[in-house]
Write a structure and sequence with these properties.
Blueprint: H1 3-7, H2 12-17, E1 20-24, H3 31-42, E2 45-48, H4 49-58, H5 62-73, H6 79-92, E3 98-101, H7 107-112, E4 119-124, H8 127-137, H9 146-160, H10 162-167, E5 172-176, H11 181-196
Parallel strand pairs: 1-3, 1-4, 2-3, 4-5
The structure holds adenosine monophosphate (AMP).
Adenosine monophosphate binds near residues 77, 82 and 105.
């Protein structure tokens, strides 16, 4: 990052200019896998709020410590905390299109963003597939133990699923996430292509 970019004042206008796509879906739906592929294939900047929080934690910041308590319980970090993190990250990123992975997760977060998202992709995966996938993925994440996964799923249905209604009719693209990653990516690109044409 150049020093001029760093010293640029934080502004909501920065976030307004670049196209922003958000990936929604339960834990284990493959948001990260697809985000990585879209970054590599289409040049998106991938912004994962979970990764940002895990990095803050590893760096021993106050934000990281505070967020960590919620993460370990499978709960959501408070809306004002995460919204600040995302706004700052959006303002600091360059002009490439952005892929939000894991944000927004509540209607309040969507409303706090201060701009419309260009496309919201729902990667749809039923709970039993989520539980099976996470049990098998072995990433060593503290919040991947079965009790916490169940809590994360409950939180998803309670807090995040209402966003599906919120975005229905405002650019929601629903993709079946049960297939292998290549099949899901194909469906996703197909849907995005139709949006552009
Ligand atoms: P993820 O890597 O997306 O599964 O996120 C891991 C954890 O980080 C979640 O279970 C939450 O505790 C926290 N987190 C990530 N994104 C958000 C968000 N948008 N709002 C609140 N908490 C979040």
């Amino acid at each position: 990052m150049t020093s001029s970019a760093r010293s640029r004042p934080r502004s909501r206008d920065d976030a307004r200019m670049k196209p922003v796509i958000a990936l929604l879906g339960p834990p284990g739906s493959g948001k990260g896998t697809q985000a990585e592929r879209l970054r590599d294939g289409l040049g998106f900047t991938w912004l994962s709020t979970g990764d940002l929080l895990r990095e803050a934690r590893a760096d021993g910041t106050e934000l990281g410590a505070r967020a960590g308590e919620y993460m370990d319980r499978g709960e959501l970090v408070p809306d004002d905390v995460i919204t600040d993190v995302v706004e700052q990250a959006l303002a600091e990123l360059g002009d490439r299109p952005i892929l939000l992975d894991g944000f927004p997760r509540t209607v309040a977060q969507a409303e706090a963003l201060g701009r419309e998202l260009d496309v919201v992709v729902l990667i749809d995966v039923p709970d039993d597939v989520v539980v099976e996938r996470i049990a098998g993925r072995g990433q060593g994440r503290k919040d991947d133990n079965p009790d916490t996964v169940r809590e994360r799923l409950r939180v998803y249905h309670r807090e995040t699923e209402p966003l599906v209604d919120h975005y229905e009719g405002r650019g929601l693209l629903r993709v079946d996430g049960t297939g292998d990653p290549d099949t899901v990516l194909e469906a996703l690109l197909d849907g995005l292509g139709h949006r552009r044409s």
